[in-house]
Amino acid sequence: MSRRVGVIRFPGTNCEFDTRDAINELGGEAKILWHSDTDLGDVDAIVIPGGFAHGDYLRCGAIARFSPIMDAVSTFARNGGPVLGICNGFQVLTEAGLLPGALQKNVGLKFLCRMEQIQFVSTANVVGLGASKGDLLDIPINHFEGNYVCAKETLDQLEEENRIVFRYTDNPNGSMGDIAGISNQSGNVVGMMPHPERATSMLLGSNDGASLLQSLLFTGRAAST
Amino acid sequence: MAPEDASVHRSLGLSDEEYEIIHELLGRHPNHLELAMYSVMWSEHCSYKSSKIHLKRLPTEAPWVLVGPGENAGVIDVGDGIAVAIRIESHNHPSAIEPYQGAATGVGGILRDIFTMGARPIAVMDPLRFGPLDDPRSRWIAEGVISGVSGYGNSVGVPTVGGEVVFDETYKGNPLVNVLAMGVLPVERLVLGQASGVGNLAVLLGASTGRDGIGGVSVLASAGFDEGSEDADKRPSVQVGDPFEEKRLLEACLELLDEGLVTGIQDLGGAGITCATSETASRGGAGMDVDVSAIHSREEGMEPFELMTSESQERMLAIVEPASLDRVLEISSRWEISASVIGRVTGDGQLRILDGFDGEVLAELPASTLHDDAPEYDRPLAPPENLIERQSLDASGGPVDCAANLLTLLRDPAWVYSQYDHQLFLNTVVGPGSDGALLRLRDPKTGRETGRALGMSTDGNHRWCHVDPRQGTTMVVAEAVMNIACVGAEPMAVVNCLNFGNPEHPEVMWQLSEAIDGMSEACRAFNAPVVGGNVSLYNETNAVDIAPTPVVGVIGMHPKLSKLPPGMTLVPDLTLVLVGQQPHEDVSMAGSRWAWEIGGCKDGTLPEFDLFQTVRTAAYVTEIVQRNQVEAVHDVGEGGLAVALAEMAVHNGIGMHISGFDGHRALFNESGGRVIVALSPADLESFLKETSNRAVPAQMIGSTGGSSLVLGSTINLSIDDLTRAARDELPQALGQGTVSG
Question: For residue B13, what pLDDT is reported?
């Protein structure tokens, strides 16, 4: 089996090519899927990349969740297919109800683009293969709305169910519990604000994102075989 | 047609003489619509009527230049079948009135100039200049402009990889918001903004045309600011940007170009549809019939002159063969952008504005007259009357407290650039906050890495150029070249944004003329032709002109990038060497930040500048960076040696011991053409031998280590104090929050 990854492109998405190139570089086979399609085709995993889907108008991800392809993504996710939402993709997943909580404006009320250190809290998910709890990674953030919020009970539940994937070591945006990424209950759907595709070469300052995408490729293959 | 009331052409910004020229060209009196069209096209902003005569002196040619000045963007051939399109523009006046939208639409406009050439824009740089930080209105403008660049640039999906942020009294009423964009394309996809082929269709793509920005180029860009209350009236001339519309327009246009569906394409910026239709027609040696009723408009009842001169953003005009129209409409619809056939290419050279293709003729004029017959002025120029007196001043006096002065002069721009996405497209090897940006060059067709990288920098210095516009501009170009040398790139081309005051003041024309000569000299010496530019005049408030501020963007090539260039990264126990111009005791402080901001003297005579020594120095620095032969490298720029050393120390949290530089003259003078290099002590001897062989002056000045910056007996400051001073200034002044955007 090849490691075929569908990368969803909404009007306004801007990290689709970076994500595709990073996956291909790691031996995957990425293809761009258009938001108005209703069929994912033959893919082993899905990435919803960063950007400003539908201009982020109304609210980040609020319009994207109604794009026709999202029904197929939901079905794929419910059937255990690996889905990774990066940045705007994370926002879309929360709006689509595939992950709990929401992402609001950073506490500093400024867009932030910079390298951040994050720590693996749970590896029981599609990006954690080969990683250990406590691993530190340097991965850039690039967002205005990355401040994760959810109900107190939800936060407790995320902790209990081991679904907090990453925490920031120095919280840049005010996220509850320093959360940088979470998963669903079965760990096949992960949303994260930092951009792993931007940390795939030492020429870009870090290679720490490569293992996350590699994990997705392996679990993608495992899920489909 | 009845002669127009004289007040009409004057209110549109045309002089009586210009009206007479139009009268003669047409052989009759123009009607109101025709006058409106001439007024926007003959505005200073569109016609360069005051500067053209001087711009001709700039060197513009080299074997690698594919498209020089005069098109939407300059294009150079960078090898492997790849071309690079580059352009810089100003959006000064709109940003003074409406900072967020002014800056946002500045970014939008320059991006369209790049994809008009068939290139995907992959980088933006923003040289920004504002009034002083202690002025509330200047802070409001700075905050709004930075938010506008961030809000629009990030959303449209083009990384902002560098720029400048400068605060000075001279920009208090008139900020400078310049923006440079660069894109890559396969050489064979290069398209020019021209209409040819009689019967071909002009398709207006993108946003609907509204009443925003009517006459922006003539009302706003080509006149100065007077009292604040009147400026508020100019607000309707500022356009409103929609980055999501631009993003879809960009992707749709790139698809049209990929599929070879357009014969020519032109963005709509200043002067709107009038400019786009007349430029494409006259470049193609053709004419065009334009149906105003076919223009998709934002509101009912817009007058033809409003439709023809509106500067609504996010619009493009594509010239397509009738057979391609269906496919063009299909791609437009997929990207959810509107498309209307508004024109037909004709063979008679006339631009006819019609109400319905078979309807009433609203205007008819030879298309080329809007460009080629624009007046060209050789305005009177004269140096300032007190020039000799000004030059004789000594700029080194003032309250000398070197340690305190250094803390004042340090400024970390991270607060600004962390608001910009500077990483998108995975090319940014060296980003903002460094000397120059360095971007991996990948094949635009295959995405494959070429193993090469593009270096870019924008630079300006109003202090140097106020003291001496000619030498100051030469030094500005040298500074930009030295910045890209520090990331290993050899210069290939220059673009310029000439921000000056009122051209009707002879002193301003003298500054412009001198600056162009200084730029020409430097560009020839570095073998980097000027491939495009923009002239922004009338930067004045209450008849006071800004200090002359030519800003240049330089692009160059790093031929073989296999690992990170040395950058500013230090470890303890390295030897520090000053390469390039060496100090002498009575060096002039004129034009330095110290003299302006601390000493309080803005005049004098600039330090001597050896252009050819600087050419050798830059070439040598480029080589050692390309070979990763040194541990660290950093250009000495604004603030002089002390600031450059402190920046390196703060960047690494490592101290330094420097000897031989005592007193404020040695530490803060701004002699050009200098670079600090850090290397292992064992390499010093061979390094000095090599520099000597290359006729590049160099001397050891100290070493790294400890937790303090020790500059002789003059300065001893802890890294912590320096870090706080650098890091906290902008966030403290500009605040954490914003309500705009």
Answer: 87
